[in-house]
Amino acid sequence: MSSAINLTAVAVKLAQSTLDKNCFEQLLTVLETVIASDASALLELQGEQLKPLAIKGLMPDSLGRRFKLSEHPRLEAICNTQQPLQFAHDCPLPDPYDGLLLAKTGDIPVHACLGLPLFDQQQLLGVITFDSLNANAFNAISAQTLSTLQTLCSAHFKTALQLAHYKLHAQHSSALVQELNREALTRDGGEIIGQSSAIQALKNDIKLVAASNFSVLILGETGVGKELVARNIHLHSKRSEQPLIHLNCASLAENLAESEFFGHAKGAFTGADHARQGKFQLAHGGTLFLDEIGELPLVLQSKLLRVLQSGEIQTVGEDEVKYVDVRVIAATNRNLKKEVAEGRFRADLYHRLSVYPLTVAPLRQRENDVVLLAGFFVEQTARKLAIKQLKLSVDAQLLLTQYQWPGNVRELEHVISRAALKAKQSQWQQAIITIKPEHCELNLSTSNTTQLSLPASTTNTTTGSSTNIAEQNLSLKQATDTFTHHLISQQLEQHNYNWASAARTLKVDRANLFRLAKRLGISVKKSL
After folding, report:
1. Which of 134, 328, 331, 505 is the most buried (most CB within 10 A)?
2. Residues 189-205: what's their mean pLDDT?
């Protein structure tokens, strides 16, 4: 009767310890209540050897040992039987734990030794061994008790191994997701290209706000790179190892928008064949980037406000309220203040989102960043098209700087990609492929563009200069500085060194033009 009671207690304790992080050690601890011993060990079968997973009464270095079955006949004998195996106290087979018992130095003298093979159906998973310096320690334990213990321990060990496997797999998956997440965040370098004062100020603001947990509202025209700004904020934040989840609010169907945000339970609505997590659950611990937030329906704006205020979400089809830890970064090309005034956007949500607003300047206001970005995209496109050497002619650079770029950086990228493809097609036999003005198909009819052809008064003078620059085989920066020096000098001469007039023609700020001229070594004496 006492054995039955003990075995029942063992079963209960094993069930309670299954999810314990030290479940292997817990297994030996529970068995101690039934089988008293000086040393016990739980070992997993790995090919032709046994690996200790938990030990009691053995030297700590035992965990680092690997017992090859061919070298340890007692362990091999346990693995080759289907039933619990008790060795005779005077068994001549060497003990694998000789010299490893904490209770005895040197080889183990005559003693009791017991082994339980652990199975999943017919597959051997591992073994449990017991050693006692009392030669008769295990004699009183009945064969039925040992058989029941073997069954209980086998089931527990199988579950524990599966949980350990799932945990390892989850850790691997998490590490893989983090790596893929970082790779996605840093694709194309993840760098904001530009040296203009507007971009330098933006970079400073990004570093400043990234260190906080504030909500950020990114404002700017289509194509200026708002998503890139969001990625940089996340990368510089304390959440950088956690996911950055992207959701385009403009693409949300109104009837499914709530499900996209907060997830849904199985059967919550027609077509909900299985449960699904929403973007807030996926972004838990990380950042949620809400692109085109100005397109969000009013009915959903109030629910988004609740999350920002309290961190509470409610899955569609469930009554339970859940809490999430998510930083929200939103972006829009709309004037949200105007949207609020006209009743299309909630004022309280606007203020919640715009704790720290960032404005990304359009490309036409970024001084000489067009040429820098063009160089970046040229290099990128060359790799994509397998072009060993791809260059941008000075005339093409001038053409790009004269355009107003209504589509901003995205439009510039596409123009360079198309131009490179056309240049490759027309110069396929040449070692160096050069993008020329004729390859840059810009829309001349766009209302907010300027005349894209070179001014008649400058065509002759620039052509010669461009040819000389190309022949010098300069780097892109050197060629850009040389060309910029020539163009500014030319415009100053044409405007009798009236800096304001020259700046208007070149479409740059007068102070910035003056600083640029000084950097390039252009004499400013005639203007004084």
Report:
1. 331
2. 89
